[in-house]
Write a sequence for this structure.
């Protein structure tokens, strides 16, 4: 091979699964080689390569492993003539996408006993703690959907306003209900809750289950992380991803198991 003219393309790094696409103006020998085999090729010694005589183009070569590669084009054994070549690299395909699979709500506290009757002597399946600004968009539609599943929902007394003790409201709701929901939104955080109260509302119950289900409404992960990092990684639902019907169905399934 020494002394034979050839065209060389050097790729400092190609990833396994990439495709080298070669376009030729006429038939030619095309070789994809690692550095040691390229040096042997230049010296006219035996070498290994991917490719061969290419008669039609574009011609595609799959990169067998990640690393540095050389691609050569020559006309050894072929009738000479003007030869033009060009090369592009197509990156490997993206990993197969996995469908979003939210964590089960079965690890949210859903205890039946002991539930303490409220001031009116009643107990509830679900209570929804929410900022008053989110009542119309989230809290009431969710409450109505849960009632359609036959659940008793506690809503009005758990509405949160400035000046309330968040932890006291949550503890009160959990004492009288089997399952707790808290709607996290910009309006919710605008109430200025103390950090210790935010950390405690979702926390873990005595038996190790998460105390309540947060529902994110018109708020991003980054928004929540800025206010309370401890809330970000909890089992939650998001109104941008999950419909009210889907959320209510999951809650009803878990509560009815309790």
């Amino acid at each position: 091979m020494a002394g034979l003219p050839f065209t060389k393309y050097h790729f400092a790094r190609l990833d396994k699964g990439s495709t080298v696409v070669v376009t030729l103006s006429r038939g030619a020998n095309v070789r994809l080689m690692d550095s040691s085999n390229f040096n042997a090729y230049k010296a006219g010694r035996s070498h290994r390569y991917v490719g061969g005589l290419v008669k039609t183009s574009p011609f595609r070569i799959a990169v067998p492993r990640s690393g540095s590669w050389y691609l050569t084009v020559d006309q050894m054994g072929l009738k000479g003539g003007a030869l033009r070549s060009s090369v592009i690299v197509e990156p490997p395909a993206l990993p197969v996408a996995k469908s979003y699979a939210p964590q089960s709500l079965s690890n949210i506290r859903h205890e039946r006993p002991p539930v303490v009757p409220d001031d009116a002597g009643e107990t509830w399946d679900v209570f929804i703690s929410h900022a008053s600004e989110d009542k119309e968009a989230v809290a009431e539609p969710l409450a109505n959907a849960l009632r359609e599943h036959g659940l008793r929902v506690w809503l009005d007394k758990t509405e949160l306003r400035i000046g309330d003790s968040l932890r006291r409201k949550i503890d009160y709701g959990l004492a009288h209900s089997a399952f707790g929901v808290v709607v996290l939104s910009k309006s919710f955080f605008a109430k200025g809750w103390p950090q210790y109260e935010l950390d405690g509302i979702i926390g873990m119950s005595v038996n190790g289950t998460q105390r309540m289900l947060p529902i994110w409404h018109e708020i991003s992960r980054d928004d929540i992380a800025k206010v309370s990092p401890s809330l970000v990684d909890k089992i939650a639902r998001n109104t941008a991803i999950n419909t009210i019907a889907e959320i209510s169905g999951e809650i009803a399934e878990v509560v009815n198991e309790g």
Observations:
- The chain has two domains: 7-90, 105-257.
